UniProtKB/TrEMBL annotation, chain A:
Its main location: membrane. Gene3D superfamilies: MetI-like. SUPFAM superfamilies: MetI-like. Keywords: Cell membrane, Membrane, Transmembrane, Transmembrane helix, Transport. This is Carbohydrate ABC transporter permease.
Automatic annotation (TrEMBL), chain B:
This is Sugar ABC transporter permease. The keyword Hydrolase does not apply. GO terms for cellular component: plasma membrane. GO terms for biological process: transmembrane transport.
Length: 297, 314
């Protein structure tokens, strides 16, 4: 690791007293900063550690004050998988998150492209509306939306009321993609135009290949928005356990097994694990997404 | 640069092209926002239980929500508590962690990953985890506190501690703020620090007169987006209250919202309580409109033309 070399500790004897105090100060600062870092790391990590340890405890030990399992009950995870409905909830989550992500990306790209690269009257207004939609709590329009899906289309108890709207662009995804597309120089688009490309061809052949990291970020955020969604399934799927998703069903482990904290925590680990695994493969996309939406563009 | 107007005159076809590219969202906006928004206003003046056809009820729903519905004012108070206390602490803590990570020289990548991961934890899973960690009976946090002789609070089971417990959980998930503060801090021009140091500025003065002015737009951004998020806070307080009170999951489960003693009740939960538990869609729409007005007010702050935090033009 190259950082180790940057450490302000050197073996060479200090030449002057002033230099020596400066070095001592730098070393003390290094120690202070890294102790604080370790303390913060404990605060951020210990919850995961305790959840994981409890997921491996026996029923009775999970109800005690012990912190470390006496016997490591890996069978708890098998019990969670054997819970009736668990695989269905897993499948539903993948359908909602997977299909929803594809639809969101496909429908948001042209909108983001127009907002980033076209000049037209009402562009700022459109962008402001998109940002307003991004900030809007879903509860604001849920009553008419529920009545529309449940009473008029009779689709409650299915995943469709959550998936179909994603085929019409998602405000956050449009905004994030637009921020990303702004960073692509216009010269590339002009060159494509000179070569005789129409708008659609320019988008497909020139812009999309360059926008891959932005698309990856949008896809990840949308996938996890669906993965994490509780309100949608609560409104549209609660009456039919066959349409529950993992995030919504997670609570039922607490209910079905009363205070079986070990199984509840095993299920919690199983809902968290995919997110964390994906993060390790796609760190850059996550961080890029957060910075692009956080810093003004 | 030609104005949009002359360009439009030049390429009449480009208007059609723009419309085609925008159409997915324009259709979505009309069907999934404009139409339901008008309906929300309409229903707020109707009596409607979902079964009998809606009937005109004038301002009855409005007076019901503001004067007789026992949860509205506690929910608004809780929301304001979260907006003021939680957002302040989250911004301060996020800034602190962001500064810490820029100072860490050894193992930076590992520290950054560890600090960031909780932000990714699914809200329901994070809340289940914290409901377990902080449960007064056998939770690890209270076990440790009692071992070292600190009186252990009741967290999600004590109305005075439930909001601090929620805040603690949101501080745990501060990774997004850490990332944007880190980016902003690294963007502060080095020369300004060097000049300040030459002038003999202390560490605090360098922070006050160099760092703060440079990152103030990001602080504002964090505050305003934090306020909007606090107003939308739904899943976490709901789950925390349900788990702490021992309610069982399932269709049509009735639960007293905001356990214990309304302390975790937020405005979005009222829409659910009124609409989907009490089948009073009209009053639910009144709360939805209050929520709409509040979020739009704060969104406007984000987008003010001059000094706005998200600039529309480029």
């Amino acid at each position: 690791m190259t950082q180790v070399l940057d450490r302000p500790v050197e073996l060479k004897a200090p030449s002057s007293p002033a230099e020596r105090t400066a070095r001592r100060k730098a070393l003390l600062e290094w120690i202070a900063v890294h102790s604080l870092g370790v303390a913060a790391a404990l605060f951020f990590t210990l919850p995961f550690v305790f959840v994981f340890l409890t997921s491996l405890m026996s029923d009775s030990q999970a109800l005690s004050r012990d912190l470390i399992p006496h016997t490591w009950e890996w069978a708890n995870y098998k019990k969670v998988f054997d819970t009736p409905g668990f695989l269905t909830w897993w499948r539903n989550t993948l359908i909602y998150a997977g299909l929803g992500t594809v639809l969101t990306v496909v429908s948001s790209i042209p909108v983001a492209y127009a907002l980033a690269k076209f000049r037209f009257r009402g562009r700022n207004l459109t962008l402001m509306l998109v940002i307003s939609m991004m900030m809007l709590p879903p509860q604001v329009v849920v009553i008419p939306m529920y009545l529309f899906w449940a009473k008029q289309l009779d689709l409650s108890g299915t995943l469709w009321p959550m998936i179909i709207p994603l085929a019409f662009g998602d405000a956050f995804s449009i905004f994030l993609l637009r921020q990303f597309l702004l960073t692509i120089p216009n010269e590339y688009l002009d060159a494509a135009k000179v070569d005789g490309c129409g708008d659609l061809r320019t988008l497909l052949k020139v812009v999309l290949p360059m926008a891959k990291p932005g698309i990856a970020a949008v896809a990840l955020f949308q996938f996890f928005a669906a993965w994490n969604d509780y309100f949608g399934p609560q409104i549209y799927a609660s009456e039919n356990p066959n349409a529950w998703t993992l995030s919504y069903a997670l609570e039922s482990f607490k209910g079905a097994h009363h205070t079986d904290w070990n199984l509840t925590m095993a299920a919690t680990v199983l809902v968290m694990a995919p997110v964390i695994l994906v993060f390790f493969f796609a760190q850059k996309a996550f961080v890029e997404g957060v910075t692009l939406t956080g810093v003004k563009g | 640069m030609a104005t949009t107007h002359t360009l439009r005159a030049k390429h009449r076809r480009s208007a059609l092209r723009t419309l085609a590219f925008l159409s997915p969202w324009l259709i979505g906006f009309a069907v999934f926002f404009a139409y339901p928004m008008i309906s929300t206003v309409y229903f707020s003046f109707m009596h409607y239980d979902g079964f009998k056809p809606p009937t005109w009820s004038g301002t009855k729903n409005w007076t019901y929500v503001f004067e007789h519905y026992p949860f509205f004012w506690p929910a608004l108070r809780n929301t304001l508590w979260l907006v003021v206390i939680m957002v302040t602490l989250r911004v301060l803590f996020g800034l602190g962690i962001g500064m810490l990570i820029t100072k860490i020289k050894t193992g930076t990548g590992v520290f950054r990953t560890l600090f960031y991961l909780p932000y990714l934890a699914p809200p329901v899973a994070a809340t289940m985890a914290f409901a377990f960690l902080l449960n007064p009976g056998t939770g690890p946090v209270n076990s440790i506190l009692e071992k070292i002789g600190i009186p252990a609070p009741g967290w999600f089971n004590d109305p005075n501690w439930s909001k601090p417990a929620l805040t603690l959980m949101f501080l745990w998930g501060v990774g997004d703020l850490m990332v944007i503060f880190m980016a902003a801090l690294l963007d502060v021009p080095k020369e300004q620090y060097e000049a300040a140091e030459l002038d003999g500025a202390s560490a605090w003065q360098r922070f006050r007169f160099v760092t703060l002015p440079n990152i103030s737009p990001i602080i504002m951004f964090a505050v305003v987006t934090g306020v909007i998020a606090a107003m939308q806070c739904y899943t976490q307080p709901l789950i925390a209250g349900k788990v702490a009170s021992g309610v069982i999951q399932g269709a049509g489960t009735m639960f007293e919202p905001g356990y214990p003693e309304h302390s975790t009740l937020t405005l979005p939960q009222l829409v659910y309580n009124l609409g989907f538990q009490r089948f009073d869609y009209g009053s639910a729409c009144v709360v939805a409109l209050v929520l709409f007005a509040l979020s739009m007010a704060f969104t406007a702050l984000l987008m003010r033309r001059r000094g706005g935090l998200i600039q529309a033009g480029d």
